Amino acid sequence: MKYKIDSQVRGVRIISGDEAKERRSVLNQLINLAEAAGCQEIILPSLEPAKIYADKAGTEVLDQMYVLKDKKSRELCLRPEGTATVQLLADKHLSRNKDVKFWYFERCWRYEKPQEGRYREFFQFGVEVINPSSDKVKEELIALAEAMVRVKTSEFDTVASVKRGLQYYTEDGFEISANKLGSQKQIVGGGAYRQGIGFGIGFDRLMLC
């Protein structure tokens, strides 16, 4: 069940009842799959320095970020995605560690036109592998992402090599889409970056499958 209150911000939702229970059930299954693959949870901050994304995100993300200044005029933003922060963590603390695997489930924010499966406040489930030692890690992550999508649907298409919009990708990435969702059909997007490789699941779109 969804509720609305007076003066509710556009592109956000209040969810309760059976829908909230189903979301929790699906989330728990994604967590089980991630942890069976050796991933540990990481919890990311919602508020970050806006400059984190200046060199890492593509134009689309930069144009959609919620940016604000704090009381000391520092430019901050509500996190638009998860991978950029994990990259900084890898540089500072994990440069000598191999096969560090994280999963996260976070709220993210982007100022875009709200529509079914696409909201200004949305939920992302992510998996990241830092300094992978396997030369088959991409195939392994695609298989994991497909298993996660199957929690909700068996009707999807995987593209193993595709150009991705974020600037930090170092090679063609991969995507999983469900045609039944129409124009907003992409559920998973991922690829390799300098410190590792990972993917993100649009949880709200997955729930529509």
UniProtKB/TrEMBL annotation:
Name the keywords, alphabetized: Aminoacyl-tRNA synthetase, Ligase
Superkingdom to which the source organism belongs: Bacteria
Instruction: Tell me the ranges covered by the Aminoacyl-transfer RNA synthetases class-II family profile domain, including all copies.
Output: 33-209
- Which GO molecular-function terms appear in the entry? histidine-tRNA ligase activity
This entry carries the following GO cellular component terms, namely:
cytoplasm
* CDD domains xrefs: HisRS-like_core (cd00773)
Q: Which InterPro entries match?
A: aa-tRNA-synth_II, aa-tRNA-synth_II/BPL/LPL, HisRS-like_core, HisRS/HisZ
Report whether ATP-binding shows up as a keyword of the record.
no
Some GO term, biological process aspect, for this entry: which one?
Answer: histidyl-tRNA aminoacylation
Q: What subunit structure does UniProt give?
A: Homodimer.
Protein name, entry field = Histidine--tRNA ligase
